[in-house]
Amino acid sequence: MITLAKISIIRGETKVLQDFSATIAQHQATLLSGPNGSGKTSLIQAIAGTLPIDTGEISIDGIDPYHSKAMELAKLRSVAPQRRTFSLAFSVAEVIEFIPARERANHWGSTLELLGLKKLLTKKVTELSIGQQQRVSLGLALIQDSKFYLLDEPFSAQDSEYQIRILQLIDELKKERGVLVVSHNTDSLHSHFDQELFIS
Q1: Nearest 5°: phi and psi at 104?
Q2: For all residues of the chain together, what is the average pLDDT?
Q3: What backbone phi and psi angles, to 5 degrees, belong to 184?
Q4: Residues with Cβ within 8 Å of residue 75, at least 6 apart in sequence
Q5: CA dist 153 to 116, 123, 138, 187, Å?
Q6: Does residue 161 contact residue 116 with C-beta atoms inside 8 Å?
Q7: Residue-wise pLDDT tens digits, 87-98
Q8: Mode of pairing for the β-strands spanning 2-11 and 14-24
Q9: What values do phi and psi take at 29, rounded to 5?
Q10: Could you tell me which of 180, 170, 174, 90 has the C-alpha nearest to residue 136?
Q11: Which of 57, 114, 133, 146 is paired with 160 by a 20 to 30 Å CA distance?
Q12: How many CB atoms are located within 10 Å of the residue 148 CB?
C-alpha cells in the first residue's frame, strides 16, 4: 500500500500541494485527477521519491522512498512520466533492453503486444510519432517488475484504439499490482477505476 499523510510541496513561494492524504492499494487502479497546475505530476514525482516534499510522510509498503536505494525503489514503483525525451536513435528493441530480463515482470511480452510495440521493434525511437514514443515510454515502465505503476497522463497522445488498449492493460495489471493513473480528462474513465482521488 502507498500511504500519503498530509503531503505539502512548496516551490519558491508557491504551494504546489497542501495537506494531501490518501491511500493507494495494490490490486486496484486509482485515478488521480484535477485541473492543470493542481500538483498531480508533482505528487507522482513525490511518491516516486524524485521530488522532495516539505511536510508529511510517504511510504510504499512501509518503506520511505526518500531513504531507499535505487534497486529497492525499482522493485517498489515504476514511473511513466508525462513526457520522456528520446534524443538518441536507439531502436525500440534497444530501448526495451534498458530493462534487463531479470528485472522484467512476467507480463512484459503481452504488454509490448497490447501497446503495439512488437511491430515497432526495429524502428528508431527518434523517428516515431509522439503517440508511439509515448507508448514506448509507457512500455518501458510497465515491463519493470514493480509493485506499483505510476502513470502520468498515459492517454494524452493516444487515439481511441490505444486508449482502450491501455485501459485493458490497466485492468490486467491491477490483478497483481497497484496502478495510479494521472489524467485531467476523466469523462470516459470512471468505470475503469476502483478509486478516484481529486486535487483541487
Answers
A1: -90, 145
A2: 93
A3: -90, -15
A4: 145, 146, 147
A5: 18, 24, 10, 14
A6: no
A7: 889 999 999 999
A8: antiparallel
A9: -110, 125
A10: 90
A11: 146
A12: 22
pLDDT recorded at residue 5: 97
Tell whether the model's pLDDT for residue 151 goes beyond 90: yes
User: What b/e string do you get for 156-181 counting C-beta neighbours within 10 Å, with b at 16 or more?
Assistant: bbbeeebeebbbebbeebbeebbbbb
Question: In order of start, what are the domains of the chain with their CATH numbers?
Answer: 2-198 (3.40.50.300)
Instruction: Supply φ then ψ for residue 79, to 5 degrees.
Output: -120, 130
Q: Strand 29-33 to strand 178-182: parallel, antiparallel, or no bridges (unpaired)? A: parallel
For residue 143, what is its C-alpha cell?
515491463
* Contact status, residue 77 vs residue 141, Cβ threshold 8 Å: no
Beta bridge pairs of residue 181? 31, 151
> Under 8 Å CB-to-CB from 2, ≥6 apart: which residues?
23, 24, 47, 58, 59, 60, 61, 148, 178, 180
CA–CA dist 115, 33 (Å, integer): 23
pTM tops 0.85, yes or no: yes
Please check the confidence at residue 138 and state whether its pLDDT lies above 90: yes
Residue 3, C-alpha cell as written in the block: 500511504
